[in-house]
Amino acid sequence: MLDFNATYHWISHYEDNDLYQVFVNQAARHVPLSNFMALDFNPGLDEWLILEEQYMDYASDFDLPEINIHLPMNQGVDDALYAYLSEAGYQLAITELVSLSNYQAPRGKSQPNQLELEEITAASLPAFLAFQVHYDRDYGLTYQEEMQGYYQEAFLKTNIDQVAVFDSGQIIAAMQVIASRDYLEIDHLTVREDWQKQEIGRWLVEWAYSQAKQAEKTLILVCDADSQARKFYDHLGFVGQGFELAFSRPIDSDFKKQFYYQD
């Protein structure tokens, strides 16, 4: 069964037991998708409070700036736990895992002649990194700097392709495509604002879909539920496989006090 465990995680440390998995990347402590606890059961309020204590042990060991706990796929929370999470200042993020198995390209659509879709090379990597800076900076300087490390590390991996669309030598769109045993995953597909709604995103997806078919793999990706991106992928024929709730909040001084947590 396809679930979120099929997706790629940029991590340096991993632990698991019968109740949860822990993902950590000490080089990317401010990247939420590289530092979280993924539960294998649906907790009530009392169990959540115990999980918080256990998470704080990892936060102390790895100097994590926030607590970030993901529920099992397609699971919600009961009223008592949701009331606590709201009162405690947790933020909710809902993501969806989608797949594309049967894509039909529309007829009569083509790209302007000056556009070129190319895989990133050592020569074009600086331009790729600069393109990503523009979109990552909205999440803060530290996040932006850590993500630059991610893209540079990904460039060296044999199972990750970085692809961009160039307009007269300038990058106007980019993505990463990550291969695993059974899947090909689209990651960070981004189209420059002035080129959106001009079929550039579709072109990138078509490239990834072609690679997946050649490799006899299923094309997948994770996106924010109820977002413009989700509507775009739905339009292309991606099918939802499941959703995931993630609750996070900063580990500030007030939150630390309840655990007698000391720096």
TrEMBL record:
Q: Establish whether keyword Acyltransferase is in the entry.
A: yes
Record keywords: Acyltransferase, Transferase
Name the UniProt record assigns to this protein: GNAT family N-acetyltransferase
Keyword Transferase appears in the UniProt entry:
yes
Q: What class of enzyme is it?
A: transferase
Extract one GO molecular function annotation from the record.
acyltransferase activity, transferring groups other than amino-acyl groups
Looking at the record, the residues that make up the N-acetyltransferase domain are 115-262
Matching entries from InterPro entries are given as:
Acyl_CoA_acyltransferase (IPR016181), DUF5613 (IPR040549), GNAT_dom (IPR000182)
UniProt xrefs under SUPFAM superfamilies: Acyl-CoA N-acyltransferases (Nat) (SSF55729)
> PROSITE patterns under this entry?
GNAT
The record's annotation in Pfam families points to: Acetyltransf_10 (PF13673), DUF5613 (PF18467)
Report the EC code(s) recorded for this entry.
Answer: 2.3.1.-
